[in-house]
């Protein structure tokens, strides 16, 4: 099988699947290394395939278009975390990360890749089963999520729902508006 044939087969598998397919599973299916699969996915994306990396593998964007993203600042108790995440995924969003802006330490970020209630359940099992606590505990419950969706309209709905449930928090004057460019600028200056 040529690389092109393998990439076509990977794309067909993703089109037919209603769940995430791990890089390891694809590697076993085609008897190649996981690194070859990572390269295949990169090539498919470069050709315009809307493949998203999720918590447990790869998946095609729901409407076949590239996803849009928005950062939401939220606040809630640790007991409300699942309610907040379920609200986002129920509205069609995918929670890519969680981060806090600490006045001393700066931005502390962790990937999440949550796209379903099942992913939320896995998160809850992991966080409650270990000796870890939510990142937001260091900032009195305030934290941020980068959320992707298939359209800006979906992100607008998520924003409205977060506000309606009392989860949306207001940015403060000392917080940078564009978190990522601020971090890139700091890295350049170091």
Automatic annotation (TrEMBL):
Domain of life assignment: Bacteria
Q: Which SUPFAM superfamilies match?
A: Putative transcriptional regulator TM1602, C-terminal domain, Winged helix' DNA-binding domain
Q: What residue stretches are annotated with the Helix-turn-helix type domain?
A: 6-58
Q: Which InterPro entries does its entry note?
A: 3H_dom_sf, 3H_domain, HTH_11, NadR, WH-like_DNA-bd_sf, WH_DNA-bd_sf
User: What Gene Ontology terms describe what this protein does at the molecular function level?
Assistant: metal ion binding
Entry keyword set: Metal-binding, Nickel
What Pfam family is a match, any one? 3H
User: What range(s) does the 3H domain occupy?
Assistant: 73-168
Binding residues annotated for Ni(2+), in chain numbering? 76, 84, 143, 145
Q: Know the name of this protein?
A: Transcription repressor NadR
Provide the species name: Bilifractor porci
